[in-house]
Amino acid sequence: MTMRPHALLAPGLLLLGLAACSGGEETTVPAGEEAGPDLSGLAIETAEARATQGVPLGTVPGQVSLPPEARVAVTPPFPGAAIRVYVIEGQAVSRGAPLALVRAAEPVSISADLARARSQVGLAEARSTRMEQLASEGIIAQARADEAAAELQQARATLAEAQRMAAISGTGPDGSMTLRSPISGRVAHVGVETGGPVDGMEAPFVIEAGGPFRIDLQLPERLARQVRPGMAVEVQLPTGVDGQTMPVGGQILSVAPSIDPQTRSVMAKASIGAAPGLVSGQNVMVTISGSGDGTGVSVPSTAVTRIGGEDHVFVRHGESFMPRAVQVVANAGGEAVIAEGLVAGEVVATSAITELKAASAE
């Protein structure tokens, strides 16, 4: 894109006949636009608007959130006391990583029940074997051997239940149990302190998965009928290096069927991949690509400014510049994509924008 300095008229010739200023040739000002400001002695860099294809539908505000399945609560099987807490909020954890060591009284009784069940199975096995032998020798009735076999089956069932409870508790002989992360992700909530109680009805830990995020979008009324599920979206995240950004892509998941009567906007949801610097609750600007078959122009981002709540550029007319409202649909990588208000070939100011705004307001 061509960048060149442009000097305005000499002092004292503000908003005078442009024909005399341009060597006798009359400069035509488009209908509906007033002659722009003329700042003497001010060097202004300019750029020519270039035609571009695949203009997105628009850029809208959005807020990053987590999908419903991304949060997992970690609860202990039994209430107890936290002996040690191993993590803090915001810490990254892998699946199976220890979160806390908890000691409870109930697992101790479970261990005792397990020991008794094992002993009862041993006794029932020995009695059943003895009764079966006596019945085979005709010393006792077979019914008594059958009763002993039934008692053995009952003892084995009790042992299996005790083993299952012991496995669920995951406790040691002293009733201690280690709470572990069920997924890889980030610790979003720590609700227990060392020495504090751990209630089996409340989750002392919440883990957030590190997968894709959701973005809640607010579509203006003009885009309500154009945006459809499946359309591509893009978010530009700052990299922290010389103002550079990194694009993160996703797609529209759903669009609300009605318009909010107060905001005159439509709510939509999009999915976007995880990326460094992207966190839940963050406000971002989302570019909706749509079908990618639109046309428009691109200019340096420095050419665009806000006047009266709308985007404007200062377009050169002869030796002066005039503000013009434009519709910016994307702004990334130092380039602003304009869908309406500017055509290819027109020249806009890319520097001294503050001075131009001040002069145009006089």
Automatic annotation (TrEMBL):
Single GO term (MF): transition metal ion binding
Coiled coil feature spans: none
This protein's UniProt keywords: Signal, Transport
Boundaries of every CusB-like beta-barrel domain copy: 216-290
This protein's record includes keyword Signal: yes
Gene3D superfamilies (UniProt xref): 2.40.30.170, 2.40.420.20, 2.40.50.100, Helix hairpin bin
Gene Ontology cellular-component terms listed: membrane; outer membrane-bounded periplasmic space
Domain (CzcB-like C-terminal circularly permuted SH3-like) ranges: 297-351
Biological process annotations from GO: copper ion export; plasma membrane copper ion transport
InterPro entries: Beta-barrel_RND_2, CzcB_C, MFP_Cation_Efflux, RND_pump_MFP
Pfam families the record matches: Beta-barrel_RND_2, CzcB_C
Signal peptide interval: 1-22
Family label: Belongs to the membrane fusion protein (MFP) (TC 8.A.1) family.
Protein name according to UniProt: Efflux RND transporter periplasmic adaptor subunit
